[in-house]
Every structure is written in structure tokens, then in C-alpha cells.
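We modelled each protein-ligand pair independently. The example shown here corresponds to the flavin-adenine dinucleotide entry; the chain sequence is given first, followed by the ligand as SMILES.
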Amino acid sequence: MKSHAKVVVIGGGVVGCSVLYHLTKFGWTDVVLLERSELTSGSTWHAAGGMHTINGDPNVAKLQKYTVELYKEIEELSGQDVGLHMTGGVMLAATEARFDWLKSIMAKGRYMGLDAELITPAEAHELMPLLDPDQFVGALYDEVEGHLDPYGTTMAYAKSAKKGGATIELHTMVKDLEQRIDGSWDVITDKGNINAEHVVNAAGLWAREVGRMTGLELPVLAMEHMYLITDDMPEVAEFNARTGKEMLHVVDFDGELYLRQERGGMLMGTYEKDCRPWSPRNTPWDFGHELLAPDLDRITRELEVGFSHFPAFNEAGIKKIVNGPFTFSPDGNPLVGPIRGVRGLWSACAVMAGFSQGGGVGLALANWMIEGDPGFDVFAMDITRFGDYASMAYTNAKVRENYSRRFSIRFPNEELPAARPLKTTPIYQSMKAKGAQFGVAYGLEVPLWFAPEGVKDAFAWRRSTDFEHVGREVRAVRAGVGLMEISGFAKYRVKGEGASEWLDRLLACHMPKTGRMTLAPMLKVDGKVIGDFTVANLGKDGWFIAGSGIAEDYHLRWFEQHLPEDGTVSLSSCGPSLVGLSIAGPKSRDLLAAVTSSDVSAEAFRFMDIRRLDIAMTTALVGRVSYTGDLGYELWMTPDVQKHVFDAILEAGKAFELQLFGLRALNSLRLEKNYGGWAREYRPAYTPFECGLHRFVALDKTADFIGKSALASMSEFDNGDMRLRTFMVDTNDADVIGDGHAIRPSRR
Ligand SMILES: Cc1cc2nc3c(=O)[nH]c(=O)nc-3n(C[C@H](O)[C@H](O)[C@H](O)COP(=O)(O)OP(=O)(O)OC[C@H]3O[C@@H](n4cnc5c(N)ncnc54)[C@H](O)[C@@H]3O)c2cc1C
């Protein structure tokens, strides 16, 4: 075995082999994959091998399309048959609400260049005669669906990688990982050690255990999963003979089932409600090519629906039941990318649909390692979308929820209940008592809107119980004054003698003078946006930065990667040690004046001023800025006084008919002013010209900020092919949902 490699990939499942292949494809050949047993001996070997492009997240859908398109390439390169059966597939809706969901998926897919077609139940029956058309209201047909051979596919990746120069060591178990002072890794195995610049955790069922070798507790958990295979069915034989085709792949959402042909019979799998985690704390190292005991009782409910929706199954004998474990993250998407704060350590774990997503994961990771950037928008699967709050117990609750809802509808306004409440602020109970309907962002309970007595959030595709009340909140802010909690923003402090110079290079804006704030886009080397913040110069107290709450770890990783090594800059995230309130609306100045003795007149406290003010019996850092786009103020304080400040503002607010408002009103208010938000309108796929942030980019400043040269080379007309635009759409009972995600995969 080699004693040194540029990259060591741990794990020879479909994901590790895809990562290995992509590394060689893009020119890194000094790469080694270590597998404790044979290739595929984790969850890969017993997969049903189904693959499809459709996904609720358009960026993940595009990655899935890339994966499916890759199979021809690796087959040709390796000479290994992947056993591809591109049958096409139908997704079935048994209810109108589900059909609405399929329509939205189709519309998003069309925007992303995926071709799928809405069809009637009769047309679906024509394509797949086992289904009973009377039990469905519609379907979505997609020709890019099917299944393949999990072993053949993994071998095709592996052989292609080997052809590209990679080495694969079988029966070599990684026992430990030790980082040297120079940042490289000693990978300790039972066959000797390898020193590597980069280590990729693609250990699938053992990803948690490999994570623990570096002191990490990754938010990943395996679940048991069952599918059955029937004896040969005459209906299948008849269809094959009549059409010369295989049965289509089917997803029956309301039955929580998926189906496909398996030789002369059918395979039916289910994501059952009564689900079971497997090895919730430790995955046994001696688990290998074995299956778990089937437990038909747990899936009876789903099978009954399945046998009713597909009546021919009632006559079919069951040949085999497979029960095997595979891993999930708390939201079901993979955990990919560099580990924050640990040099050379990469994650390619929690890939629950390896045959739909494995290629995209390999592409993103290889791009990221070689180029320093995944090459497209992978925020939906970036490991930093989970912070420290994602503990083992949290992960267990969320994964169970996610698994049992895999085929359930997620309404656009739906908040999922598992593992909540977890993080709350001191005014949580007060807001709850005032009718707050909470959502969750980065583990924190955040008020979405305030309901009158007896009214609750109801989840729907169309306007729901919140509509008139959110409208009331919006109008109150526009005409008077509203109060909102903003503790969910990410907050950072930057100090030290090198702080201003560092920020000037990191952020694309002009740096504000003492006591002032500015909007601050942050760019990547390719000139695309990687963050948008409000940065404040607090003079001798250093710098204060506020940004997107859900991207806290994501941005910290970027900040830390760019910190100078000479110790002249200190960076910290304030996390829950700083909480916030915002007042907004034309009467907000008068309200602020009522709780402070400081002069907050328009002249004394200008737009984008920031300073410490006395508020009631305490003090707060107050900035004159509002994300609603109205006259407004953000007040930052320590948690111990938040309730006091909240109560004082509520009391003083009585004279101004102060209205509490939540995130939904904020979104409406900000969109009216065309203010973007991170992960929505601002994404790492856009240049500032495209998403309208160029107004805040100071190409004329002296500092050579990251992204400057890329941006400077763009002419007025050649500066990206998209533009962020705000539309007014007349609607009756449903509101449009902006979903302007754009990715351009495979820039190589
Ligand atoms: C019943 C069932 C049906 C499924 N159906 C489908 C389907 O239809 N479509 C689909 O896309 N997906 C399906 N899946 C999921 C699919 O199997 C996974 O997405 C995929 O296998 C994940 O691959 P992986 O490479 O991440 O992990 P794994 O396959 O678990 O591979 C990890 C590898 O790492 C090795 N390893 C771990 N630790 C070490 C160490 N310390 N040293 C050396 N080697 C190590 C292991 O031996 C293993 O080979 C199904 C899964 C199950 C259980």
C-alpha cells in the first residue's frame, strides 16, 4: 500500500467510488480508496437500484439528472455493464392536493430543463396496466426514470477511476485519523498508514463512526428499509410480450410506495410510517453482506393500500423480502463539502438515493477539492446547513420524521414538528401567549405570524388561515409600527489590528466609517455571490456583522478559510449570546424615542447609523435599518434583558397601536421593495449583476477584494445571463412562490 496520497477516500460504496472517479476525471490521479471489505458492502449492495430526476428541490433535481446521464459515460469508459433499465416512470396522485404538488414539481422541473408531463389516470393505466385508474386523480410521467444494477454501477465507477490512475485497496479498514501539524492526515489502517492531504468520509453506514475518529458527531442515522419481490406475474409477462417493453417505474405517493419490474415479477418498496432507526448509536463494524429480519407487520398498512391500488398484487406470491439499512440526514439530503474548521477533511455522507444522487455528489466534491468551489449551487446538500444543534437525539427525531414523510406532501407553508421546540429565546413564551405561530430556522423557534385566539396555522397550497392576519401585520407596519424578533439572524464580531483590512478584502463594499453600517455583498473568486450582510463599524469595539441565520456555519466556514494566519484578526459568532428585536414602520422613530432618552431624530440618528442607546432600564446596540424596507431600527441586546426590552417596547407601543409581526409579513414587505434574501434571491449561482447586488459592489475601491478581477472583466453587456426581477401577479386564492434557483452543473 502507498504511504502517501493526495486524497484518501474512505468507503467503497457507490458514493465513494463516484467521488474517486470524479477526482481522476478532473486530473487528480494520486488518489486512493480504502474499503474495509469488498466494494458495495455497506448499504449499496442491497439497494433497489431505482433512479429518477424528480426532487422537491430543483437544485437536487438537476444533480439527479446529471447522475442519470453519467451512466452511459462510466459504462463506456469501464466496459462494465451498469444494468441500466431506462423504463420511464409515473408518479401517481390519489388526491387533488397531491396532484397540485405534482403540478408544482412539473413547473419547477420545466424551469430547470427537466421534461415531465402531466397525464390522466387513464393514460397512466395505459402505460402501466397494473394500476387501478379509478383510484387516482392524475399522474406525472417522466421518461428519465428506471433502475440499474447497484453492484455493476459501483464497479463501473471504480473501474473508470482505476483507469484514470486511482488505486483501490480492499479489505483495508480505517481505524483512526490523526492530523499532523502541517494539516495533512495520517490515515491509520489495519494494513499500515497513509499520509494524505485530503480525506473524504464516504463511509455510508459507518459515516458516524469515521466522523468520530476526528471528534465529530455527524447528523446522520441509518433507517431500516423494506421492499418485496413477487413471483413472476402473468400480467407482467403479458405487458412485456404485447409492448416489447418493461413495466414502468412507479411512485405512488398516497400509498407511500414505489414499484418496478424485477425479472418476471414486481418489486414493491415502502417508506412506512411505523419506521425504525437501525443501530441508533453505533454501527457494528462486523455488519456486512447481511440483511435484517423482515417485519411485515410494520408495513401492512402501506401494503394494503398498494395491493388495492395495484390489484394484480393480490394474486401474486411473494418471493423475497429485503430489509436493509441506509443512512439519512435530518432533512433527507446528503451531507457534502469541507468540514468547517478542519483542514483537508471532507464529507460525502448521508446519500439516501445513491443511484440518483451519487454522481452529482462526486462531481460537486471533486470540483470543490480541486477548484475550491463545488461549481454550482449545492447549498441544499451542504453539510454546513446544520449547526451544533443537530445532536444525535435531534438527528434521530428528524430522520424518523423525514423517513416516514418521504412520500408525504410538504405544503409550501408547512412547518414540521419533530425535535421542537429546541432553541428558544427569552421572549418565546411571551410571543406564544400572544398567538405566535412558530417556524424553525437553524434550530431556533421563529415567529411566522400572530394568530388571534382560536386560529392556527393550516397547511395548504392555497391561501390559508394566515392570509388575512399576515395582511393585517403588513398593513400595520406600512402605516404605523410593528415589532418583530430578529434573534435568528447570524451575528458576528470581528476585532483586531488586521480586522478592517481583512474585511475590506473579504467584502465587496466600501467599508463604513465609525458609527455607520453598509450592505455588504461577499463574492467568490469567480465573482458570484457567496453572502450578503450588514456590516457595522463600531470603532474601538471592532466590527459587527449581521447575516442570514440559516447560513451561519456556511459563512463561518468561508470566513475562517480566509482568516490571516498571523493572528491579527479575531472572529467570533455571537450565536445565542446576542438576541434582537426590530421595530419598523413610519411610527417606529416615535416609538423608539418613547423608550430611550437619546436623541433619535432624523438628523441625529441617520439611516445606517449604529450606536449604543439606553433602552428602558438597560442598553442595546441600535442600528437604523430595517429589512422590511421601511423606516425602522434593529436593537441588539444580551438575552438576560431581552424580555425587559420587549415588554418596555410593548408598553410604550400601546400609544402607537404597535403590531407584532412575523417572518411571513417580513417576506411580503421586503419583496415589495425588491430586497433579496440569502438562499432565495441571493445564491452562489448568481453574479451581483444578476441578482441586483452590484449597487453595493465597490469596484472602485483600492482593496483587491475577492471576486474583484472576475467582476471587473465583465462588460456592461456580458455580466451574466439572468436578472432578478420582481413581478406583481394577480391571483385569487393562491399566491405564487418565488423559487428562482439556478444552477449550471458540470462547469468542466
Ligand atoms: C433496501 C434498500 C433499498 C434501496 N433502494 C434504493 C434505490 O432504489 N435507489 C437509490 O438510489 N438508493 C437506494 N437505496 C439507498 C442506497 O443504497 C444508498 O443511497 C447508497 O448505498 C449509499 O452509498 P454509500 O456509498 O454512501 O454508502 P455504503 O454503501 O454504506 O458504503 C460505505 C462503504 O464504506 C465502507 N467503510 C465504512 N467504514 C470504513 C472504514 N472505517 N474503513 C474502510 N471502509 C469503510 C463500507 O464497508 C462500505 O462499503 C436503498 C437502500 C436500501 C437499504
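The two ends are 31 Å apart (CA to CA).
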